[in-house]
Specification:
Layout lengths: L5 E5 L11 H11 L3 E4 L12 H5 L7 E2 L2 E10 L11 H4 L4 E5 L10 H12 L6 E2 L11 H11 L2 E5 L2 H4 L3 H15 L3 E4 L12 H10 L11 H12 L7
Parallel strand pairs: 1-2, 2-4, 4-5, 5-6, 6-7, 7-8
Antiparallel strand pairs: 3-4
Helix pairs in contact: 4-5, 5-7, 7-8
GO biological process, one term: bacterial-type flagellum-dependent swarming motility
Pfam family, one: PHP
Protein name: Phosphatase
Amino acid sequence: MYEIKTDIHTHTIESRHAYCTIGEYVAQAKKIGVELVGMTDHGPAMGGAPHFYYFLNLSAIPHMVDGVWILKGAEANVIDFEGNVDLEDRILKKLDVVIASMHESVIIPGTMEDHTNAYLNIVHNPLIDVIGHSGNPNFKYDYERVIAECAKYDTIVEINNHSFEFRRGSAANCKEIARLCKKYGTYIAVNSDAHFYTEMGVYGNSIEVLEELDFPEEKIINRNARVLLDFLSKKKGIRFTGE
């Protein structure tokens, strides 16, 4: 049984279609033994998402609150098939963790070649850390080609528990993505994509897939806070002190 003690993909009320504050996530994390929470509200191209000032001012929040680590990040929206996202580099550089995801409300799905090109450019962007919920069948891509490249560039591939229930047709794709991550030694992050605090740290569907594949635990980069923080510190030059 895998024990995953962090969740680096959650949404607060600032995303407008989510329903809790970061304080409520911290309280729940403390209650259920989650060591670290990632605040990754949607970038401004998503309807109702916060203004870019919100991301610039995340420095107001400490990295640790009541014994729980907080990563100050974003789920940036992919806005074209060149892999550009809706936050400027000057903002991305200030964030602890950046997830890049495709959403139908932001970009109309294209061809598999379009999606593959976008993801390859994302992988090659050193300011992006995680490819988000890429099992979405509306944005299918050349999994093998992209995931092999992720292994070379230490880009994390998300196994998104939310997708199994809310993105119809994602389950088989997520399993194939996880299989290829095992094949190529690509890091994964198992995340909830929570929109309410009771969803945080809930990974039943994802864990089932990983157990079936006998996925190597050492390639789950968010299995605990220290492993994740060490990885991000080395990659991004951030000093996580808990202050």
